[in-house]
Amino acid sequence: MKKALITGINGQDGSYLAEFLLGKGYQVCGTVRRSSTFNRGRLEGIYRNTFDHHVNLNLEYSDMNDSSSLIRVMDAVRPDEIYNLAAQSHVQVSFDTPEYTANVDALGTLRMIEAMRILGLDKTARFYQASTSELFGKVSEVPQNENTPFHPCSPYGVAKLYAYWITKNYREAYGLFGVNGILFNHESPRRGENFVSKKITQSLARIKLGLQDKFKLGNLEAKRDWGYAKEYVESMWLMLQQDKPDDFVVATGETHTVREFVEEACRNLDIPLIWEGQEAEKRGIDQRTGKVILEVDKHYFRPAEVDILQGDSSKARRVLGWQPKVTFKELVKLMVDFDLRKAKNESREILID
Ligand code: NAP
Ligand code: G4F
Question: Distances from the Cα of 203 to the Cαs of 54, 208, 211, 265, 352, in angstroms?
Answer without folding.
Answer: 34, 9, 9, 10, 21
